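Sample 3 of the quickstart, ligand uridine 5'-triphosphate:
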Amino acid sequence: MVKKAVIPAAGFGTRMLPASKTVPKEMLTLVDRPAVSYVVEEAIASGIEDILIITSRGKAAMEEYFVPHFELEAKLAASKKFDELKKLKELTELGNIHFIYQKEQKGLGHAIRCAKAFTGDDPFAVILADDIVYNEGAPATRQLIDAYEKLHGVILGVQYIDDKNISKYGVIKPETIGDGLFRVTDMAEKPKVEDKMSNFAALGHYILTPEIYDAIDETTPGVGGEIQLTDAIRKLIAKGLVYAVDFEGKRYDAGNRLGYMKASVEFALRNEEIGEDFKAYLKELAQGL
Ligand code: UTP
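Result:
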């Protein structure tokens, strides 16, 4: 059973500068909740009970977001603002959330290595803190956990990406073994379009097994001097341990300006409170574009 999740959120977020100089990019809001909140909610809705967020200096707001604020709660109760109070309380009931510092930003592989004591001998989910998936059915991580329960290997969450964008991602060489299920026979990080092994890219959602730690330890720094998770996963592919699932859901990369704006607009349209009014506003605005 996969009951633990690791959320790497220690990166500098240079694509969201200058905001990310002082506001962690994971704390930039989509409507009224920061990006990391959506990711934690996805984990909990997938059956995860314990979450470790990998953080770094200057991101204390992320830690405070998940702990109770008793003074504010008392004030809201006294002024009968029960809706707001409910929203605050729901946040602190999102499972057990732990934090650990990645002392130097040496890449995603290095960030995940910081979770070794937390995950121990257990398989665990990884969700990147700005990789948000909206799905009316099972959450993306749940779909990966279901695949893990059948296959008991590393599971990569993948989706089809067009040629224009494929070079931004870790791309797999898939061998179909079921409906939307693949055995992964190779993988490359950010390949040129002419070298791509397929159009299926890993999109920020993984189930990893403890074997990943030895693979990370054996991985030398790659592109940008960083320890790349893809390089470590390739070592496990060589041992036949890696699968992929083409998960359902609309995925947003909230870590770059355009992706963040698309996510903001679409989550606002889905919002119960402002959705209808926002849609009317957008339609009116679009007429003048
Ligand atoms: P990104 O590639 O998005 O890097 O990392 P970044 O630093 O966050 O953002 P840019 O590219 O500079 O704009 C993917 C995920 O891995 C985490 C990030 O926080 C993000 O969730 N990460 C990356 C770490 O936790 N530590 C690292 O050393 C690098």
